[in-house]
Predict the structure.
Amino acid sequence: MRRTRKTKILATLGPASSSPEKIRALFEAGADVFRINMSHTSRTALADIHGRLRALESEVKRPIGILVDLQGPKIRLGTFGGGKADIAVGAEVRLIRKVEADGPGTIPIPHPEVFTALTPGEQVLIDDGRLGLRIKSVGSDSAEAVVEQGGTLKDRKGVNLPDTELPIAAMTPKDRSDLDSALNLGVDWVALSFVQRPEDVAELRKVVAGRAAVLAKIEKPRAIERLADILVFADALMVARGDLGVELPLEAVPGKQKFITREARKAGKPVVVATQMLESMIQMPQPTRAEVSDVATAVFEGADAVMLSAETAAGSYPVEAVAMMDKIATKVEGDPLFQQILDAQRSPPEETTPDAIIAAVHEVTQTIHARAIVSWTKSGSTGLRAARQRPGAPIIALTPILATARRLALAWGLHCVLTEDAHDLDDMVDRAARIALEEGFAEAGDRIVITAGLPLGTPGATNLLRVVFVGGKG
């Protein structure tokens, strides 16, 4: 099944969409990669869903990516007498390192690491930022604060500390157990929550040991400050606008989204824009105009993928949400301004042979109006380099490794085909032309551009560019 768009769709599975019939319907509507959120999924359910996805992959004969999203640590309030407490703007309150409130004016936060890290002047946000405090002083197991945004506190609501770097790891014991299960099943991507520093991603990468690709969710201001270092260890990024929109002023999020997207593109690594993209479709069959514009902005910016969360996991219209996202992306990519915007944002190639070859591929493809680019890729690096250029022509990624094809399902513009390694140069050319024809990307007499590495089958050694006619030898 060939997609007519280049931007990929990442759909979250949940109660509304985990049956074999719904999963197939989501795929047929346009989903390229499926997300399993371990905040709401047991390890037994993970195995069941994984099996359904692999069965679908066999049926449709297309590589399908599976992303497991680890929950990460959660900082939450303790409990109050009666289940809630009111705090007024300007009131002075006391944070205590206890499970239950001591009485009026006390707020329990049963996390010792919070009191270790807090300093005067820092913010504490509660319940997705609905309530806000400013720290005045800090002790070993308590802190004094003034209320800047009042309201009703409720038991176990989430706590965000936008100014504070917490001395805790991004992976909890639960995450490590979930990760073991996911890796044993053979998932393609693992997403890490609560990333504060590059060491968080490096730790996950060490545990994964090449068995899956690593995606870092950028949802904290500290992670944005260290984005360049995080990109060294991450295989992809996610603009996780949910927590990012709590810990940053709302008006700052669009600019940060563009910054993260462009930095990932410069690094040649996939970037996903996520959270509340078609939020109203959780309950309504049509999105708002603003939501359509939001998705379109991410596509215009050149994001590799756009993600649906509750829309497909728990919404009333999961298939319709994917179909709508597909329509929006397809329409944007057909806009005359689309390619102009992508071309204007293209980074100069790095001073390496593979980058020089891929840059030349882009120029040759434009000059001769080639119908497709065919990249032979074993590790996936050649395919990602081709995608980084955001060419106008479609990219066919040929690989002998199923895991590579599945991981590349997240990358912009890549149509992955599983095929054995080329035996020699003639086989490389003939098979590339035949697959371009069979997959519907070219017709007899059209020209395609082929890129590969010599010696054949050498990972990351892109050093060959060849122009051929489909139906004949170049």
Remarks:
- The chain has a mean pLDDT of 95.
- The longest helix spans residues 43-60.
